[in-house]
Design a protein that fits this description.
The chain contains 16 helices and 14 strands. 42% of the residues lie in helices and 15% in strands. InterPro entries: J_dom_sf.
Length: 397
C-alpha cells in the first residue's frame, strides 16, 4: 500500500532543516518513497521506523479501547497509571494530551489522558499475536482496518529522518528549509547563528553537534559522488569525440505552416518543395571525419601506445575472460586473497575441487533465487561478492 503523499515524492532524499518545537531548526533527511516493508527491513541504511509514524494517529470519530477510571472522588491526572479495566469507546474530542470519549457499553462520557487510548486496529493486532483471536472478521475487521486511511501520511506532510537522535517525524512540507553549509552559518535563531545554537543543544536525547556532523558527512558524500559522475561523463565525451562516436545533432522540428498559407497552397495546387539534398546525403552515408575517426579505432596495441592521447581512451580492449585466463600476471594483493578465502569458508591449501564445492554450498544458502522477496536485493549484492571472490581464487589457484 502506498503510504506517501505527493509532497513526499517531491522532496524525497532531500537534506533539510525542519521545525521542531522547543529546538532550533533541526537537520534531517526526507525519507524516499519506498515500501514500509523495505524501510523496516535491514536493507534500509537508516534506523527502521516504527509503525506509528505511518498511521494518522487518534482522530475524532475513531473507535478505541479506552481505560475506565473507577475512582469517583477525583478526576484522573497525567501521572496516574492506565487502569486495568478497558472498554470500547468513541472519540468525541482530541486534544494535545487529553481526549474525551464516549463508552459504548455504559453510554457515559469521560475526559482521560490520550495515553490510555489505543486504536482498535493495534488492539486486534496484539490479540492476534497473543493467540486470543484468530482473525478479525465482519464489522470488527472494518473498524480495525480503518478503511483507506490506515497507514497513510496526511496530505501536505512528509516523513523526515532526524539526524542526531535517529527518530522519524511527520512535518509540514511548506515549513522545510533546504540544507546547505552556508544556510547553517547564515540562518539566525534567537539572534545567533543556527550552527552555534545547534552545537549548544544536548538534552533529552537530542545532540545538535552530532546532528550537524552527520548531515555534513552526507552532504560531502553527495558532493563527491556528483564530482565523480561529472568526471565520468567528461571522460565518456572525450572517448566518443576521439573515436568519432558523437551522435549527430537532432534536427529541430519543422514549424507548422499557417492556415491561410496552407489554404492558398491547396487552392493553387502547387507541389510542396522537395527535401534539401544535404539531408539525404547526411542520412545516406557518414561524414569524412567520422570515417577517418573510425579508421583510427582499428589499430594494434603498439600503435595505440605510440599515439598522443591518453591510454584509457585508445588502449587495446581485452575481454574480461582473457584478462583472467591470459599469460599476464594479475596483481592481486595477499589481503584480498585471504578475504576471499574467508568469504568462501575455505582452509589454507585448498584444492580446485574444494573451491567449487564451497561455491555450491554457499549457493544453496545465499543465492538470491532462494531468498524471500524482501531479501532478494540484499542477497543479490552478497552473492556478487561471493562470485567475485570465487573468480579471484580460481584465477590464482
Amino acid at each position: 500500500m502506498q503510504w506517501w503523499s505527493a509532497a513526499q515524492k517531491e522532496h524525497q532524499q532531500r537534506l533539510v532543516l525542519y521545525r521542531l518545537r522547543g529546538f532550533p531548526p533541526w537537520p534531517g533527511l526526507v525519507v524516499r518513497t519506498k515500501s514500509r516493508q523495505y524501510l523496516q527491513s535491514p536493507m534500509n541504511p537508516l534506523a527502521p521506523p516504527d509503525d506509528s509514524i505511518f498511521d494518522r494517529g487518534i482522530q475524532k470519530g475513531d473507535t478505541v479501547t479506552a481505560g475506565v477510571w473507577l475512582n469517583a472522588e477525583r478526576r484522573p491526572t497525567l501521572e496516574d497509571p492506565a487502569p486495568q479495566k478497558k472498554e470500547k469507546a468513541k472519540i468525541l474530542k482530541v486534544g494535545p494530551k487529553w481526549v474525551r470519549v464516549l463508552y459504548k457499553k455504559t453510554g457515559e462520557t469521560s475526559q482521560i489522558p490520550k495515553s490510555w487510548c489505543e486504536l482498535l486496529s493495534q488492539c486486534i493486532l496484539q490479540h492476534q499475536n497473543t493467540g486470543k483471536v484468530k482473525r478479525a472478521t465482519g464489522k470488527v475487521r472494518d473498524v480495525a482496518l480503518r478503511g483507506s486511511k490506515r497507514g497513510v501520511v496526511p496530505s501536505g506532510y512528509v516523513v523526515v529522518y532526524s539526524y542526531g537522535d535517529e527518530m522519524y517525524r511527520k512535518v509540514l512540507a511548506r515549513s522545510l528549509i533546504r540544507y546547505t553549509p552556508e544556510v547553517v552559518t547564515e540562518q539566525k535563531y534567537r539572534k545567533k547563528s543556527l550552527r552555534h545554537c545547534l552545537k549548544k543543544v544536548d538534552k533529552r536525547g537530542f545532540n545538535g553537534a552530532r546532528a550537524l556532523k552527520e548531515i555534513k558527512a552526507e552532504w560531502d558524500r553527495r558532493e563527491r559522488a556528483r564530482q565523480e559522475r561529472q568526471q565520468q561523463e567528461a571522460t565518456a565525451r572525450e572517448y566518443r569525440a576521439h573515436h568519432g562516436l558523437e551522435q549527430p545533432p537532432t534536427p529541430a522540428p519543422a514549424e507548422r505552416e499557417p492556415a491561410d498559407r496552407a489554404a492558398d497552397r491547396a487552392a493553387s495546387k502547387r507541389p510542396l518543395p522537395a527535401d534539401p539534398p544535404t539531408a539525404k546525403r547526411h542520412t545516406a552515408q557518414p561524414s569524412q571525419a567520422s570515417q577517418t575517426a573510425h579508421a583510427r579505432c582499428v589499430a594494434t596495441p603498439l600503435v595505440n601506445h605510440a599515439r598522443s592521447a591518453s591510454a584509457h581512451l585508445q588502449g587495446h580492449m581485452v575481454p574480461y575472460h582473457e584478462q583472467l585466463e591470459g599469460t599476464d600476471v594479475q596483481h592481486i594483493s595477499t589481503s584480498d586473497l585471504e578475504e576471499a578465502r574467508l568469504l568462501l569458508r575455505l582452509e589454507k591449501g585448498f584444492s580446485v575441487s574444494e573451491l567449487h564445492r564451497a561455491r555450491r554450498l554457499l549457493a544453496l544458502e545465499k543465492h538470491p533465487d532462494k531468498a524471500p522477496a524482501h531479501l532478494k536485493d540484499f542477497r543479490h549484492r552478497e552473492w556478487l561478492k561471493i562470485d567475485a571472490a570465487f573468480t579471484m581464487l580460481k584465477a590464482t589457484a
